[in-house]
Write a structure and sequence with these properties.
- It is a single chain.
- The chain is an alpha+beta fold and 215 residues long.
- The protein has one domain: GHMP Kinase, N-terminal domain (Ribosomal Protein S5, domain 2), CATH 3.30.230.70.
- It has four helices and eleven strands; from the N terminus they run E-E-E-E-E-E-H-E-H-E-E-H-E-E-H.
- A six-stranded mixed β-sheet has the order 2-3-4-7-5-6, covered by helices on one side. A five-stranded mixed β-sheet has the order 1-9-8-10-11, with helices on both faces.
- Strand 8 and strand 9 form a beta hairpin.
- Helix 1 packs parallel to helix 2.
- InterPro entries: ExoRNase_PH_dom2_sf, PNPase/RNase_PH_dom_sf, Ribosomal_Su5_D2-typ_SF, RNase_PH.
- One of its GO terms (biological process) is rRNA catabolic process.
- It is found in: Nucleus.
Length: 215
């Protein structure tokens, strides 16, 4: 299988605290999301979990309708050290502002970066990459646009963790018919982009910490 990873991922982010504890306007290539985090904070008795933090993730489309956020919910639960905040709640709202492909990886990366900025305790940090397989030339495209996704015979969301700068696959969700060759090729193709995401996280937080005044 051939791999098209010729173009580097382009990131843009801007933080705000006007309406939420952490609000991040995040652009990855041409897909744009807003991630807002509130908490940890007090919850009503009926919604508390005695031994860990209750995390709520809601994903909104451009028209304001909410849609499935199973991947975001699952990986947010795994990232956060929920035992550090028993009986409290954390609300994560992801608003899709523009979708030009790879929207789930963009949304998950925005959640990771916003959680980093919130300074909540972590168990693990994730970076997500999406790939698409084109049948006409057996080509794997990394971070595909919406046009490429529509032409693809299979797509995959690959989630990585980085331990001592070593990438490990922590999640793989696919659509379409895949083969072992596609799995191996997709993981190999996505590693370079995952390293770019983690490097962007490090760069962004370093800049934010250096620009933060302490009294």
């Amino acid at each position: 299988m051939e791999i098209d990873d010729s173009s580097s991922t382009v990131f843009t982010s801007r933080f705000s605290y006007s309406d939420s504890d952490t609000s991040l306007h995040y652009i990855q290539n041409e897909t744009e999301v807003l991630c807002c985090i509130n908490g940890p904070g007090e919850l009503p008795m009926s919604k508390r979990i005695n031994d860990r933090l209750a995390v709520s993730v809601v994903y909104y489309l451009e028209n304001g309708a909410s849609t499935s956020s199973n991947e975001l919910q699952e990986f947010a639960n795994l990232m956060i050290d929920r035992s550090s905040h028993p009986r409290a709640g954390l609300s994560i709202n992801v608003i899709q502002m523009r979708d030009n492909g790879s929207r789930i990886s963009s949304a998950l990366n925005s959640v990771s970066l916003a959680l980093l900025d919130s300074a909540i305790s972590f168990d693990v940090l994730f970076a997500a990459v999406e790939v698409a397989l084109l049948s006409d030339n057996n080509l794997i495209v990394v971070n595909p646009s919406k046009d490429v996704e529509e032409k693809a015979v299979a797509t995959a969301l690959i989630v990585f963790s980085s331990v001592a700068k070593e990438l490990k696959v922590c999640g793989f969700r696919s659509t379409g018919i895949i083969t072992p060759d596609f799995y191996c090729g997709a993981v190999d193709a996505a590693k370079s982009s995952a390293n770019e995401v983690f490097e962007y996280f490090r760069k962004t937080m370093k800049e934010r910490l250096s620009n933060t005044s302490t009294f």
